[in-house]
Automatic annotation (TrEMBL), chains A, B, C, D, E, F:
Belongs to the HpcH/HpaI aldolase family. It comes from Piscinibacter gummiphilus. PANTHER family: 2-KETO-3-DEOXY-L-RHAMNONATE ALDOLASE, PHOSPHOENOLPYRUVATE CARBOXYLASE FAMILY PROTEIN. GO terms for cellular component: cytoplasm. The keyword Metal-binding applies. Keywords: Lyase, Metal-binding. This is 2,4-dihydroxyhept-2-ene-1,7-dioic acid aldolase. Transmembrane segments: none annotated.
């Protein structure tokens, strides 16, 4: 089975630089996949993407060595299994709040005896190889998002679930949940403290910690702290920021 | 009928700042349309877009005051009329090389008696208004691309065709045609001279001149020379450039 | 944030005339949006529409002042949050049967502290404005459908859930649930009584009442009774009825 | 090969009642196909439809006995052959202006020795049957649109082209071409005269005459005159008219 | 209402030969539908298909007498009701593990009073007929998949749920669940025994038994044992096997 | 620039085994691309594929070393340039009948000074590499189809056009054109003679000869004669043949 570069990076203590895809299109995905990201996450939760569009996006990413990851809309068995069958090498699940949530996540994403994932890796075996079934459990990466007050309350319960490879922090949702401003990088102290706490507990449990960032500065600082999977920006944000800059410069140049 | 802001800008000697869409998706189009461009051109020639995807992209642009323009793949009656029926307020036609080409272009894009455009503005009348038929000929803008050696040979013949509102220079194709490097901004002297010549003749004939640029600097310089419609970058290029910058900074920060 | 015209109408005691979209296409949606409806509901439950097609339909509606509403297939967090992120200004949720159902519905559709909606209004902030996060909770409208025997049993429990703005009656499902014929307007007495009861209790709790109708006569009569959100027909039904009338007249005229 | 009901109707002097599809969707097409039309024409010219969407629309029509017809965007070999390979049993070609145009149309739509249609009826043989190749030339119906001044000038030249089965009049384009108002039914005298002339010459040459109408009254009157293929309305127009009527009645009832 | 050929076959003790669709396309579906299968199952679980693509696939199947069946991704009310509204005449639900699961499945797929299916057979009544509502409960077929250890534990509880028409065995998932190799036909003894047991109990409860097979030999052998619904291969597998055979022969012939 | 394996095979006198894609879907394309073909041709002429669907199919093929080829619907500049910009490494153009046709084909598919291809390899440079512009003219392969009586008349004129890399014989169209039965392999003597003649003249001019086949036997025999590019079957035909075989065996086994 094709190895998962995320696991290889993590094994040596390295951190993965992850890009984010909110635009539901395979050409923009392929363009992003050629920019050198370690992995790209197709966002089926807040991105404008659904399953049908995700498939050619996964194919587009598969033309490069970039690792394909998918964030699902919710902790729901149907979609989790579908994105894996389509060839995702990592899944990020939002709002994992309890030990039971984490157990269901692990069950849905692993074949028996480790879980209850149904068997039918129709595209996954094209991408991963004919021995996919034998190695998928140890190759695919499962992330639980820690982004609510409930999740903080059950943090150790969640982190100690066997088979959970990683957690992913959504700073804006976590901030909202704690009554702070919903931002990515410059979070309020209460949120900052929670993030540090999550990271520390993840380290303690041997679970990889990932986080969403708005800037490279924040991402690098967080890697320095111990995060091993950092997202910066997204296709749509990068495009909009670039466009805004062009328009602003033109307006200024034209004295409008 | 909804007025065409391009004509309004030009009437007072102003220049329009145009964005470019190569990604075949209505969400990226809508995101671009919110960044303040005067107009956005959906590229059915070199962009990855075809008619069916263009329709929701036009709808997305129609949620803002940005003027929707379409570049067609070729001087072909069927697609020219279809993009107008779909509500484009401007069309850019590649490789107009002779007076006859320009006459066909004008004929296909105007109703009788000015041309032979077939009647059926199915979406155009939703966007333009119920009086579309009466005013379309004077509202829509038609651009002929000047980008070949043949076009240079027949420049005055082309520019003097009645009903041709504007020309659009493709610097890379023009450069290739003249044996120069295919670039947007820093063109070889021979190409630069040709561009100046085209601009001068367009001015002489009272035809608006537009041009593709790679940077805001080039675009502003060209406006200063007299161009009144300048494109800078594209959705895909802006996105890729932003992504590349993030990845480069991360690689540098990580010492890779 | 762009205000919600439904709330404005209701504030002054007015009623909204709502159209219904079952055809999964953005051109038919845009055509409908130009006919003067106060709001249009994209039906992801019984309509042939899913998330991916809904997005350009929302964009099409956004070219007009018509308020975009979406009926989701089921009370499921993933899809509820996705339709809101895509810019729906109202959501209708089928088969809300208990107080707990209504509480989950309100939680999924509101940001903390009022609920647990995850943060990422990717298209919603294009449509609503950059201050979307601050005002969404007070702008978006949440409808619970009352259409089962269980819902009748728990009517006051449901109606008293804080944050539930409105209810929506599906007369055919409600009729079926009560052992009556599944019709929209001329419902059996038992169903008629139930509808009156629902309206009265909604009024009592200060919750807006909406209902599906087959004809304008029924809709006007129901507004007269106190309903403030009435649907009449649907894109597909109106088209089919018009077509059938044409064919019938032609057959008659041709003596077939 | 499945027979063509249009030919059967015409053989006995009957007229076909044709519906029109401008909405690019297979569900609206299937709904229309269940309303009793003799044939349905998918409009790739002024409708919002392209080849890719046309395919499932043809499949949707194929669930009923309604004859599938396609209007192509232009007299272009590629698209004419593609719509036939996809299973259209009739093609309408816009703006056939000369004998040479008509000859090319016939050539592109018939196999050798009658024409130069390329062989590959990939879906057509599913719909028509395994003996499609042997009978297609005598089963499919080819319409040339007569709608320009040039076409009037070359009317007999066009009508006498062997293999041209039918002509189709676009009253609004014909009116525009003659300097009249672009309407369907109540055309200006000059256009009315031209229409009568076209019908008379078609009859003389044994070519079936078809025409676009806005109302059943006009369609019936034209059948009475001798037209044997009449279109009334379209999916989008019927839907919009129905919606407008509902909204108008609601507004009136609400005293707005 | 159009009768369900599956029920007709079963009534006389016959077995249905079922094809399988994993390719998300209506042309491949129509091609498959012309090969003589009694029924075709569109696989929304492990196939690459989602709701939006399923709709034209159902339309494609509806051009033939083949019975359209859909496997849903999971036991979830929203999608179960949507596939029925779209005209599926059979639904297969994965991983039905308990009596409560089976009861929910039956409830979601039947109208009151037998269940809680919401009313709105938008396309289903085009396919089934205007009297769909009256007969759907007795026409549509509901399959529960038996493929886990839990399901084996609760087998009689599941099989005795009123309204469950059939069960469907997934040999590879069942094998995995029992610690055996995930294969279709030549299953390990423990799995073989379980399959025989499931068949016997289904017979006892008067529930039709179906099963997935890799070869016609296995399928025929299982029919001989009493299975009445057998799947062999899938569109993608048949295509890949045919292609591999061609390539192998060419390689051999070329001495590569 | 990524080298073109077709050229590498031909350089050493080898023959390429080509697969054919008529199903408009990227998953079936990816499945085919994993079966070991040297190249895969996406058929935009008789296949059910158009530009928009072709793009993800090209991406799917790009996940493997298989060379992506596209057959365009017709000799039309717009679509020829679009398929190249999308990353096709070979184009097959139907019905090239004259020297002028062949010259236009070469012009449209090569950059200046060899031709007039417009510059904008948006996806092609992702697939081919950043130096695409410099090497495309020598890397991409252009095939002219020889399949009409006219082409036979102008055979040497066509074959001597500089820049034409290969010809492709469509045996069924060629047969039709010569009054023979439209078959792939066992063609009538007159067609067989014509094919031999084409091959001989192509060899004489140093132009590679390719041909469509129905069976591996025919393909191998033709390679033995000197053809260097042979197609066998297609995705849809292989799938249908496999399905028909399963159904036939089941019917036989069931004694139907």
């Amino acid at each position: 089975m094709r190895p998962n570069r995320l696991r290889e990076l993590w094994r040596t203590g390295g951190a993965a630089v992850n890009g984010w895809l909110a635009i539901p299109n395979s050409f923009s995905a392929e363009t992003m996949a050629h920019q050198g990201w370690d992995s790209l996450t197709i966002d089926l939760q807040h991105g404008m993407v659904d399953y049908a569009t995700m498939v050619p996006m996964l194919q587009a990413i598969s033309t490069t060595p970039t690792v394909p990851v998918v964030r699902v809309p919710w902790l729901e068995a149907g979609i989790l299994m579908k994105v894996l069958d389509a060839g995702a090498y990592g899944v990020i699940c939002p709002m994992v709040n309890t030990r039971e949530d984490a157990q269901r996540l692990v069950a849905y994403t692993h074949y028996a005896p480790r879980g209850t994932r149904s068997f039918g890796p129709v595209r996954a075996s094209l991408y991963g190889g004919p021995d996919y079934a034998a190695h998928a459990n140890d190759t695919i990466v499962t992330f639980a998002m820690i982004e609510t007050a409930a999740a903080l309350d059950h943090l150790d319960d969640i982190l100690s679930v066997e088979g959970l490879d990683a957690i992913y922090v959504g700073p804006s949702d976590l901030s909202l949940a704690l009554g702070c401003r919903p931002v990515f990088d410059d979070v309020d102290p209460k949120a900052a403290e929670a993030i540090d706490h999550i990271l520390a507990r993840a380290k303690h449990h041997g679970v990889v910690a990932g986080i969403h960032n708005g800037t490279t500065e924040a991402a690098l600082a967080r890697i320095a702290k111990g995060f091993q999977f950092v997202t910066v920006g997204s296709d749509a944000r990068l495009m909009a920021a670039g466009a805004r800059q062009v328009v602003d410069r033109m307006q200024a140049g034209l004295g409008r």
